[in-house]
Design a protein that fits this description.
It contains 16 helices and 17 strands. Helix 1 runs parallel beside helix 2, helix 2 crosses helix 3 and helix 13 packs parallel to helix 15. It starts with 12 loop residues before the first strand and ends in a 16-residue tail after the last strand. The protein has 2 domains: 344 residues, Aldolase class I (TIM Barrel, Alpha-Beta Barrel), CATH 3.20.20.70; 102 residues, 3-Layer(aba) Sandwich (Rossmann fold), CATH 3.40.50. The radius of gyration is 24 Å and the shape is elongated. The relative contact order is 0.11. The strands form 4 sheets. The protein has an 8-stranded parallel β-barrel, surrounded by 8 helices. Strands 16-15-14-17 form a 4-stranded parallel sheet, covered by helices on one side. It has 488 residues and is of the alpha/beta class.
Length: 488
């Protein structure tokens, strides 16, 4: 996949013995689209759209390796052979477009969803995050050995299903393996606790199990925090050492994230935070290993991904929300059409709903589940008047025009954007201007007639737009905090 606009980003890279067509990888982002752990048609459509859009390799959301503990009710599983057919269908759909795919293998430990009937949560020690309802019980050594085999079993099933490898999640002081690695939650005094070498023993045993059973041509990637940014947590120096040990253990790629689930927004960095939030860690780790290093953390524009690779901060850029917001991100960027990419504003709606059991959604992309381009033509073409050129009005006008209607968009302001123009003024809200530009640019493409600086009354509409279908999108009432009400 060549690109004169971003030649480094869209150059191939070898991970283990597998060549990936470009360096835009999609990291794990939960969707809640699975059905009791099984791959659904909606999940296949969701990932197929990103593969069709040009992503080089997809790492799926969390895949739990044993049946007792649930991470999120809508996540995927692979703890017995009944899950294999769904994964075969998913792998086939993604491979159709030359994209590689790997599940992220995980045990939630003290992060498990405490649904009724769940036994007491387990962890490395009697220690869990501050928001846990009760202290988890320490996992026994026998259970460690059993879980190691379960990670291997899951990897073998994935290999049978035709995926290209697996990612092992050991980042963010999160889940079982991340919990064992961090001194924040591992207070054991046996062979799996104490020193850094002992704390990484469980992780290394899981890697050895997968490599022995799946062979050298099966990608093993490990996600780590390059620094936990927390007093008493893992440091960058620690993780340089861990990375070197992982390479010696036969890992093919290191996925460098950062922080914990509590400290510095490691799950998804928030709007207004810097792009490439963990690039300093990946840059340093890359100096000490010879296998590919990926960086992640709010990389949502092609230019910065190109710069990170060109400057040696990483070999690969994990771009999650960018590809959620626009499944055609890669194809548009590679063609030099970055202005046509639907911009991610970092609002975290994709995370917030998931945490409450809802299906994945996106503020900027209403079709995020599939993002398949194209709209059904209207049975009858009509004249449509949209009043209000804020984000809702521009979206309504665009969709109506794409369906074949003759659309006129009118706003009393002299330019589009409505209340979003005001919302873009505070610090860290600049990216909202990109949404306005993107939406307005699409209107010309769709053939929408835009009339600005004109305020319409009901009488004006009856006189000048008789026979038009009318969409009123003149804006919501702003919410002012109680202490500010009355101020002018």
């Amino acid at each position: 996949m060549e690109s004169s606009a971003y030649p480094m980003l869209f150059s191939p890279i070898k991970v283990g013995t597998t060549e990936v067509k470009n360096r835009v990888f999609m990291p794990p982002v939960s969707t809640n689209l699975a059905d009791h752990g099984y791959v659904t048609d909606d999940l296949v459509d969701h990932y197929r759209a990103r593969a069709k859009g040009g992503v080089g390799l997809i790492i799926t959301e969390v895949v739990t390796v044993e049946p007792t503990y649930t991470y999120l009710p809508g996540d995927m599983c692979c703890y017995d052979d009944t899950f294999i057919p769904g994964w075969e269908k998913l792998a086939t759909a993604v491979h159709e477009y030359g994209c590689k795919i790997m599940p992220q293998l995980f045990h939630p430990a003290y992060m498990a969803f405490n649904i009724p009937g769940t036994p007491r949560l387990i962890a490395p020690s009697f220690v869990g995050p501050s928001y846990a309802r009760e202290a988890p019980r320490p996992i026994t050594v026998d259970e460690i050995h059993e879980l190691t085999h379960q990670f291997g079993d899951a990897a073998v099933r994935m290999q049978k299903a035709g995926v290209d490898g697996v990612e092992v999640h050991a980042a963010h002081a999160h889940g079982m393996l991340g919990g064992f690695l961090t001194p924040l939650y591992n207070k054991r005094t046996d062979e799996y606790g104490g020193s850094l070498d002992a704390r990484m023993r469980f992780l290394l045993e899981v890697i050895a199990e997968i490599r022995e059973r799946c062979g050298k041509d099966f990608i093993i990637d490990v996600r780590i925090s390059g620094d936990e940014y927390t007093d008493g947590g893992l440091t960058l120096n620690d993780m340089i050492y861990v990375s070197r040990r992982l390479e010696k253990a036969g890992v093919d790629m290191i996925h460098v994230s950062g922080g914990t689930t509590i400290k510095r927004g490691s799950a998804i960095p928030a709007a207004g935070t810097q792009q490439a939030s963990h690039a300093a860690c990946s840059r340093e780790i890359k100096k000490h290993v010879n296998i590919p290093v990926a960086t992640v953390g709010r990389i949502n524009e092609a230019w910065i991904a190109e710069e990170l690779i060109e400057d040696g901060a990483a070999d690969i850029c994990m771009m999650g929300r960018a590809n959620l917001c626009d499944a055609e991100f890669c194809n548009k960027a590679a063609a030099g059409n970055a202005d046509e990419i639907r911009p991610c504003i970092g609002c975290l709606r994709c995370l917030n709903g998931i945490m409450f059991g809802k299906r994945i959604s996106c503020t900027v992309n209403p079709d995020v589940e599939r993002d398949e381009a194209g709209y059904e033509p209207a049975a009858e073409a009509k004249n449509v008047l949209v009043v209000g050129a804020g984000p809702a009005g521009m979206e309504a006008a665009y969709i109506a025009a794409k369906r074949g209607h003759n659309v006129v968009l009118v706003d009393r302001q002299d330019e589009p954007g409505g209340e979003m123009r005001i919302a873009a003024v505070p610090p860290a809200k600049q990216e909202l201007t990109r949404v306005i530009k993107y939406q307005y640019r699409r209107l010309a493409e769709a053939g929408v007639t835009c009339v600005f600086g004109t305020e319409l009354s009901a009488e004006d509409i009856q006189r000048d737009y008789a026979g038009y279908e009318v969409v009123l999108a003149y804006g919501a009432e702003p919410i002012a905090p109680a202490f500010m009400q009355g101020f002018k």
